[in-house]
């Protein structure tokens, strides 16, 4: 990082190729992955593929800012939500911990956390709550391509397949 520039200039330098940054991004990816993996596996152990709390929670959201949408989802999409939440959390967590398809997994995490943030809607302390912080963790992992740092994505990017099809790098990282 350049400390020679004035504090409020239009250029910002962030060295993502330094060793401490690589270690930190790997730790951030692993911790975020473990968090989601643990949440998913716990639901699978307790409820299997019948996570009934999700649809039941949605059915009770009658007085929220989202109106009848979550109630409709709870009534009509329970078949998708019950297995989808625990499986999604588990697979997203596994992918992040292994550092494989990291950007795709982090995008899934952003999707889940956006739904949780809006759905939980406990904004007693304002818009910043634990769900928003989880959303920001996933967004950070996605943006910086944290799977390249001590993850399998770094190995996969060196394969002939990815070199022949460089657009695959958009889901790796």
From TrEMBL:
The keyword Chloroplast appears for this protein: no
Q: Where are the transmembrane segments?
A: 20-37, 49-71, 91-118, 130-151
* The keyword Transport is assigned to this record: no
Q: What is its main location?
A: membrane
Output the Pfam families linked to this UniProt entry: DoxX
Give the UniProt keywords, A-Z: Cell membrane, Membrane, Transmembrane, Transmembrane helix
Subcellular location field: Cell membrane
Q: Domain of life of the organism in this record?
A: Archaea
Q: How does it sit in the membrane?
A: Multi-pass membrane protein
Alphabetical list of PANTHER family matching this protein: INNER MEMBRANE PROTEIN YPHA-RELATED, OXIDOREDUCTASE CATD-RELATED
Name this protein carries in UniProt: DoxX family protein
Q: Which species is listed as the source? A: Haloarcula saliterrae
